[in-house]
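Exam revision sheet. Question 4 asks you to relate a sequence to its structure. Input first:
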Amino acid sequence: MRQAERKAADLDSLRAKVRRLERRASSGPRLAASLGSGAIDEALPGGGLPLAGLHEILPERSEWDDGPATGFAVALLTAVMKVAPGPLLWVSRHDDLHAPGCAGLAARHVLRARARRDEEVFWALEEGLRCRDLVAVLGEVETFERTAARRLQLAAENAGRPCFLLQRRRFAARGGAPHSPALTRWRVASAPGREDLPRGLVGLPRWRVELLRCRGAPPRGFLMEWDDATGAIALAAGLRDRALPAALSA
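Answer key, structure tokens:
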């Protein structure tokens, strides 16, 4: 066979291999969940929230501002369940989860577990990731313990499902956030409502969301609106999509 013919045959073989890989990828499970906004999805590798890995969510003011962070966690879980419907495990330290406020999450799909210490939360999350019937797990913790977080990241990767750590602390932390193996780390705070609404109307809840860390993407800041009737999130009109200061991107 002439050299040109061999090159053509090799090229045809390579093209066929690429087509097989593309078909395999398109028929396999989705690797990311859309958050419902193109601008937010574009800020994340893969066009959405990675499904196989650990995600951390923390409030801006840890001593009292965990309501918006919990709402944001619900919004992320809602996005995951649109891709892979099914039951999820929520492990809490406090008995204050208000089910009617978890828009987008059917009560029959949320399995609740109580834990007294962070160590018990981490253990329950690892066990939950071993259960193939669960589509996601979430745990409320006071601290992000590095070794335990690393174990959860590996367990979530192996399971191909997301694990969320929602930080709920009674007192503000001192110093910067510890290094984390999580795929994403989000900081959430409440934001003022729309100023153009008639007096007396509240409008949709707004959050100032900072993507402090994202594997494969730079930090970003978003102003989001949450439709608490459907669980959908969207960019608010006053969006400031910008890189965060170096001090905040740890």
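Marking note for examiners. The CA atoms of residues 146 and 178 lie 7 Å apart.
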